[in-house]
Amino acid sequence: xxxxxxxxxxxxxxxxxxxxxxxxxxxxxxxxxxxxxxxxxxxxxxxxxxxxxxxxxxxxxxxxxxxxxxxxxxxxxxxxxxxxxxxxxxxxxxxxxxxxxxxxxxxxxxxxxxxxxxxxxxxxxxxxxxxxxxxxxxxxxxxxxxxxxxxxxxxxxxxxxxxxxxxxxxxxxxxxxxxxxxxxxxxxxxxxxxxxxxxxxxxxxxxxxxxxxxxxxxxxxxxxxxxxxxxxxxxxxxxxxxxxxxxxxxxxxxxxxxxxxxxxxxxxxxxxxxxxxxxxxxxxxxxxxxxxxxxxxxxxxxxxxxxxxxxxxxxxxxxxxxxxxxxxxxxxxxxxxxxxxxxxxxxxxxxxxxxxxxxxxxxxxxxxxxxxxxxxxxxxxxxxxxxxxxxxxxxxxxx
Length: 399
Ligand code: BEZ
What we know:
The chain is of the alpha+beta class.
């Protein structure tokens, strides 16, 4: 244990789901940890916004399937700390045009990856999908797969559980309203300044979600990304007996009116009697996270509403509640999550761990373990090679 009050083994910058999961894992290793959150903990301004997420195993790449499988014991462990059900196992239904390549991959490639790792799933025809899962008017050529271990994640309860674990840990200090405004390398250590004071850390973990470059710029590098302000809508159930799994539809875009939609079952912890359906596209990607507004794009909502009307049973297609969530996405093809050390031109780069971009809520407790191990030991059991940025990708940024 470090003696000075403001000295830490690890300073985590960004107190959303990933930052809290990392701090929790660090506390299990008895590492004195400071979490700096620029807004308030549990805020709705970054990638941890909203209430539900999808846990799914299908991915077109086996290493992603493996990561989802490896996450399961970490979810089980987190579950022991709360009476709320974190993963509501309703299964994953992936369906649509089998030729479509989307941001989430492709159905046939996912089937291959599942087979390779012996993950059970069923292949489905359009007719079977309509009969079993309450969709309608699907093009005949659509196919699908159902994987029973998929779940709807109570993400609010997940974050609350991690927050409480950190709060009661003697190893973790949580500081909100504390954006890092300066990071200085002092010998082997880092001095991090916020409006609330100065702290010294041996290691740094960066988990600021879409605001990552506000932190990386303090260290002299920049991560290229595009930003999606994702809209979401809730539709009232007109037939209470109908229940949906978590699902995702792959389609070819017709003009610009979107292609992918995804949805959730009705859950008692997120607008009971309503079902969340959302577009997995944005009409206007952003270059800068500060351009976002908290207002969902009307046109994206209209396309979603039309899709609900055309293809879903038992729902009133008027969006009753809406929300937005800001996510940074990598601009490197096939590189969803970026997990790496800082680039080598940054002093002490091996002591700076960064997680940036992509949809990672389903990995939350496991990603916390990966980031904690990278910070404490410089390595982790999970092979992060596919997630490494490659040094060319980091642009230098003049501090
Ligand atoms: C995902 O499972 O990664 C995902 C689902 C819906 C929208 C975006 C991502």
